[in-house]
Design brief:
Number of helices: 8
Strand content: 5-15%
Structural class: alpha/beta
Oligomer: single chain
Helix content: 40-55%
Shape: globular
Order of helices and strands: EHHEHHEHHEHEH
CATH topology: Rossmann fold
Radius of gyration: 15 Å
Number of domains: 1
Number of strands: 5
CATH architecture: 3-Layer(aba) Sandwich
């Protein structure tokens, strides 16, 4: 099964909106189209930011987590993170490190400011926004019919 790593911002947006691309990514994972992968840091960041900025979305977030069969990876060690600090901002290096080490098929994020095409090239990851990923899935379905 394909494995797709999602950044915290995708979980946050998916919990806050029932109609956006981030929610669509979570729904597709829920029905088993692919395995959703996160790190402990991603889950912690999503919950922390929801509590702080969007507390109304917390019940939906909890319900989504209960329905999703997440693959939760441990956070990387400082030694694993260090080389990635030259590629991306320090705050995002642990996320990039885990995604690369886990050999995921796609990395989905709304953070296009930091997770740039240059980061994708240097890391070997296919980095997409939720909308780009939904379009990719749509094209697969259309071509397969």
């Amino acid at each position: 099964m394909r494995r797709v790593f999602v950044d915290a911002n995708v979980l946050i947006a998916g919990a806050d909106s029932q109609s956006g691309a981030s929610n669509a990514v979570l729904k597709m994972a829920e029905i088993g189209l692919f395995q959703l992968v996160v790190s402990t840091q991603v889950l912690d960041e999503a919950e922390r930011n929801l509590r702080k900025k969007l507390p109304r979305a917390l019940p939906n977030f909890a319900a989504q987590l209960a329905r999703l069969r997440l693959e939760i990876l441990p956070d990387p060690t400082p030694e694993q993170v260090e080389p990635w600090k030259e590629v991306i901002e320090t705050k995002d290096a642990p996320i990039l490190s885990v995604a690369v080490a886990s050999s995921v098929d796609r990395f989905i994020t709304l953070n296009t400011k930091d997770f740039t095409p240059a980061v994708a090239e240097q890391s070997g990851l296919t980095i997409l926004t939720p909308a780009q990923f939904v379009e990719e899935i749509r094209q697969l379905v259309v071509s397969g019919l």
